[in-house]
Amino acid sequence: MAGIVGVHGIGKYDYYVNAGDSAAGAAEAMRLKWDRYLHAALGGEPRAYISEVAYYSHLLRDDGPREGARPFASVEASAHQVLAGWARHLGVGEHVTGALKSFTGWVMSRLDSRSVVFAELFAPEVAAYLTDPGRRDRSRRAVADAVRRNRPRVVLAHSLGSVVAYEALWSDPALKVDLLLTVGSPLGMRDVVFERLLPAPVNGRGARPPGVRRWVNIADKDDIAAIPPELCDSFTGVDCEELVNLDWIDFHTAEKYLGCPALGPHLRPFLT
Q: Is residue 66 part of a domain?
C-alpha cells in the first residue's frame, strides 16, 4: 500500500486547467507522474508509491482569463517584494532603492535565462501564498486534509510545497507522519519566506512540526529556490541534510528531485 502524500511546488496550475477545472483530476494526473519519477530513483517493479498529491495551485489564482504566467509588469506589489528579497540571495546587489517595478526590471536584465523563467513562476505564487491570508489558509487546509485522509507515513514536499506542508503540519499537531522529506525547499530563505512562516520562528529559529518523527532535507547545490540549501542553521529538528547535483538546467524540477538516488535510502524503509 502506498504510504506517501506528495505536496507539489510552483507552476502546476496547468494540471487544473487540463483536468477541466478539477482539483481532483489535477491531483491524480500529478500522482501518476510522481509515481513514475520515484520509480526512477527506487528501481524494481513499477508500483504506486504516492497515495495522493495534495493539490492547491488553483487556490493561489484569481478567477479570470487564463493566459499563462503573467509578465512581471503586471505582477502585484507583493510579488515584487518577494522577488526583491529573493534576488538579494542571488547576489544581484542591494543598492537599488527605486520603485519596485524599476527594481524588477533591473533584476531581470541581470539574471540568466534559467533564473528569468523560474522567477516568473516563483515570485507570484510565493507572494500569493505568503501575503494573502485567505489563499494561505485554503492552501494549508488542502494539504492538511490530504494528510488526514491518507494517514501517510511520509510527506514528500517539493519547492513551495515544503512551505505549505510545514505550516499544514504545524496547524494540526494531531497529524502524525514518520518522515517529512523536503526537496528544493525555500523554507530557510531570509527576507522572503523564513520570517513570514506560521508559526513565526522564535529567536531566529524554526522547528520541526510536533507530529513529525524525522525530517530529511535534500537540495541541489545550484537550486536558486533552495537558498540556503541547508536548513539546519534555521530550524531545529532537521535530522539529515544532503546536497546533490541534479542538473545545471533542471535544477529545481520535481522530476529531477524525485528521480534522485539520494531519496532511495530515506524512502525504502517506509515502502515495504
A: no
C-alpha distance from residue 15 to each of 10, 12, 54, 119, 222 (Å): 12, 6, 13, 20, 27
Query: Residue 238 sits in which domain range?
Result: 4-61+136-270
pTM of the predicted protein model: 0.84
Burial 198-210 (b: 16+ CB within 10 A, else e): eeeeeeeebbbbe
| Domain identity same for 147 and 260 | yes
Number of C-beta neighbours around residue 55 at 10 A: 28
Q: Taking a C-beta distance cutoff of 8 angstroms, is the pair 143, 168 a contact?
A: yes
- β-bridge mates for residue 214, sequence order: 179
Cell of 110: 541581470
DSSP 17: H
| DSSP calls for 134-162 | HHHHHHHHHHHHHHHHH--SEEEEETHHH
Q: Are residues 201 and 103 in the same domain?
A: no
Contacts with 129 (C-beta within 8 Å, 6 or more apart), sequence order: 60, 135, 136, 139, 160, 163, 164
C-alpha 123/C-alpha 107 separation (Å) is 13
pLDDT tens profile 134-176: 999 999 999 999 999 999 999 999 999 999 999 999 999 999 9
Per the domain annotation, does 127 fall within a domain?
yes
- DSSP letters, 188-239, are T-TTTTGGG-SSPPBTTBEE--TTEEEEEEEEETT-SSSSSS--TTTEET--
Nearest residue to 34 (alpha-carbon basis) of 156, 147, 135: 156
pLDDT digits 0-9 by tens, 184-230: 999 998 888 999 999 999 999 999 999 999 999 999 987 878 888 99
